[in-house]
Amino acid sequence: MDATLPHLSDAPFITDGGMETTLIFHRGLDLPLFASFDLLRKPKGIAELRAYYEPYVAIAEERGVGIVLDTPTWRANPDWGKRLGYSPEELDDANRTAVDLVAGLRETSTASILVSGCVGPRGDGYVAEDLMTADEAAEYHRRQVEVFAWKDVDLVSALTMTYAEEAIGIARAATVTGVPAVVSFTVETDGRLPSGQPLREAIEQVDAETDASPAYYMINCAHPSHFAAVLDDDGRWRERIRGLRANASTKSHAELDEAEELDEGDPDALAAEYVALKPRLPNLTIVGGCCGTDHRHIEQLSRAWVGAE
Description:
Blueprint: E1 13-15, H1 19-26, H2 43-63, E2 66-70, H3 78-83, H4 88-107, E3 113-119, H5 134-150, E4 155-161, H6 164-177, E5 181-185, H7 199-210, E6 216-220, H8 224-227, H9 236-239, E7 241-246, H10 253-258, H11 267-277, E8 286-289, H12 295-307
Parallel strand pairs: 1-2, 1-8, 2-3, 3-4, 4-5, 5-6, 6-7, 7-8
Helix pairs in contact: 2-12, 4-5, 5-6, 6-7, 11-12
């Protein structure tokens, strides 16, 4: 079943949860360098990824909502691929296989599934480091975005962006290939990007330097308590935020990085915090999870969010 892109309707969507934390802590898998795409090397790994996605698809079917599924390619860019021993051609193959995996789920489901080519940061994802200019970022991410475009993904999602210039580069690369782009920033406990830039300024900068080409913006890999206060700052920038994929834990990025056990938080409490943000995010229609969340959190989110409509 085809689904209209989220920014073209007011229909509710869900996403999956914290892929890497689920695979490591719940399924006991080894993900070198936190790279889910490395599982695509073998049929058993592909089966594990399919099993990860299936509960989320089932929730979408049961609730009658659309679902945006990101490919397991958050680490599938040149620097991380090289560290894992991938040639550029092997990395292309992994990105293509990832799209095929998610597209295959759509073929056997009654849910309205959107295939999102996931583009992660060049760096760590928690720290703004080895900063690129927007032009450098466009060139760096161009090849992965082109592979996704050739595979006819519905959209490209730049997740866990730590500074504006990298987001600008990915948005520009997507514009050249003709695929809709989504930009998702992460923030620290003070509501600012790891670069120190306020969230509002980052969104406004990307819009200003890309002719507002991103289809919409998201916030991911942060707990609602980290950014709720900054959403009191009124303006059109808040209307550009359509998606939220929060962490289960209230811990900072530094604390999560050092944690040896998974902090799963409270699914009911997290859902309530999402609903509490509704008045400040009038266009928020996409709810999902990030680190520490799994299908239980998304189930509660879908129930609370649709019930709040």
